[in-house]
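During the reporting period the student researcher (J.K.) took over the structure-prediction task from the postdoctoral fellow and processed the backlog of single-chain submissions. One of the processed entries is reproduced below for the supervisory committee.
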Amino acid sequence: MEHHQSKESSPEESAMDSLVTKFMSVAQGPDGDLLLNLLDVLYDRMSEGEYDDQYLSTEDLEAIRRGKDIKQGRRCLALEEYRSGKWL
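J.K. obtained the following structure tokens:
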């Protein structure tokens, strides 16, 4: 008969498990590409030595908001605006 030791997880492990669970859920959903692109941007910034504990800029946050608004139908994007890249 096998005996399994119960192992209590630390708050850090529980937080990491929660983060991984949330990440996997979003990554497998309709916003998976957005999450992976954002992760790539943050990782590249960190690996290039540009990471200095600063948060996303105001412009970055506004671009994310605009993208969400477009996706949820609260904002329209004209074809010319899309082609010119001005919406980025």
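The committee noted the following: The chain has two domains: 12-52, 55-88.
J.K. will present the remaining backlog at the next meeting.
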